[in-house]
Amino acid sequence: MTRATGGKPRLAVLASGRGSNLQAVLDAIAAGHLQAEVTGVFSDRPGAPALERVPPTLRWSARPRAYPDRAAFDAALAAAVEASRPDWVFCAGYMRILGDAFVRQFDGRLLNVHPSLLPRYKGLHTHARALEAGDAEHGASVHFVVPELDAGAVVSQVRIPVLPGDAPETLAARLLPREHALVVATLGLATAGRLAEQGGQVRLDGQTLFSPLALDSAGSLRPESRS
Ligand code: GRF
């Protein structure tokens, strides 16, 4: 997937909010832990703090309501993203559903991080829903994006225990640094050209992955061990 044009793999990031996942990516690049170049940060919220994390030349934002319809906004977003010539497009807290045309255009190189152990808790309020269900474990997933919300093939997951007395906020706060590590490790596989999607399945090093990779405590991704 990585282009053979020389230079570092190019990564476009879509974000709507504070951008802590984006910052984890930027920090990993700066530390030499991730061989990639962020080609732009793209937002549906011109006031998003995420945008401030990169120089102005790398920022693109627009208000969806300034466009006649969803397709028109998506087309403008897609054109801006494409113009940055990304090898991979990563949704890091991008809170707007991407239309079919956008997903098709970036098919196979479009990843999202979602704060639940997919397929559990697609959509919003994942931490509260995990607590309400009495789950012993919670986590985050990185998956390929398909038109259906949070439904694409899951590449990797990190699990944390739910502790007695957890509230959605404490659970979210404990998960966030692990989510960041998951994102960096997974993007590391993607930008190294080791990850692909084919027929709704994840392929790692050319082999089909039958269950998501699991992040270990050292921050490495390993095949899930089933006990
Ligand atoms: C993350 O928990 C992500 O999984 C979810 O929204 C949150 C975004 O956080 N989709 P940030 O903007 O990266 O700080």
TrEMBL record:
GO terms for molecular function: phosphoribosylglycinamide formyltransferase activity. The record marks D150 as: Raises pKa of active site His. InterPro entries: Formyl_transf_N, Formyl_transf_N_sf, GART. The active site is at H114. The keyword Transferase applies. Residues 10-186 form the Formyl transferase N-terminal domain. Its EC number is 2.1.2.2. It is an enzyme of class 2 (transferase). Keywords: Purine biosynthesis, Transferase. It catalyses: N(1)-(5-phospho-beta-D-ribosyl)glycinamide + (6R)-10-formyltetrahydrofolate = N(2)-formyl-N(1)-(5-phospho-beta-D-ribosyl)glycinamide + (6S)-5,6,7,8-tetrahydrofolate + H(+). Pfam families: Formyl_trans_N. N(1)-(5-phospho-beta-D-ribosyl)glycinamide binds at G19, S20, N21. NCBIfam families: PurN (TIGR00639). This is Phosphoribosylglycinamide formyltransferase.
